[in-house]
Specification:
162 residues, alpha/beta, five-stranded mixed sheet, 5 strands, globular
């Protein structure tokens, strides 16, 4: 009888990998974000990525980051990965679950995370840490007792042939 493998990936690597793979579905030319919600029993409950709502064609709505009128930019239309993952869940509640996300949640997504009952966030990037949106997010998450930790991975490369 042989011994079990020892080079398998950790739970954090697995779930962040799912979030990273989900981000690859995003058609946003600037920022691709993915999210994965996991139960306390390490079961994947939902995934999401940033994109337009169902029924809103990504060929007919703007992808521009800047414009004189917000109506003409993506920010008025894009649903963030965290929000999509929460809204995609159809199985009850998300109490005490963990969210893996490739980019730290904005203040609007933080509200949804808190209201849904998610108690922990593992994030891979915090490039907007100095913005008012992320500062407000962290303030609310702290007040609500939602733990957030930086994903310490990134040392392994996994090649997928799809």
């Amino acid at each position: 009888m042989s011994a079990k493998r020892t080079d398998y990936i950790s739970w954090d690597e697995y779930f962040m990998g799912v979030a990273m793979l989900s981000a690859r579905r995003s058609k946003d030319p600037g920022t691709q974000v993915g999210a994965c919600i996991v139960s306390p029993e390490n079961k994947i409950l939902s995934v999401g990525y940033n994109g337009f709502p169902i029924g809103c064609s990504d060929d007919e709505f703007p992808w521009e980051r800047e414009g004189t009128d917000p109506y003409d930019t993506k920010y008025s239309y894009v649903t963030h990965a965290e929000m999509n993952a929460i809204l995609n869940f159809r199985g009850g509640n998300l109490e005490n679950c963990k969210l893996y996300v490739t980019l730290f949640p904005c203040n609007e997504c933080a509200k949804a995370v808190i209201q849904s009952g998610i108690k922990e966030i593992c994030y891979a990037c915090d490039k907007y840490a100095d913005t008012s949106s992320v500062k407000a997010s962290k303030r609310m998450l702290d007040a609500a007792g939602v733990k957030y930790t930086y994903y310490q991975g990134g040392q392994k490369k996994i090649l997928l042939t799809l």
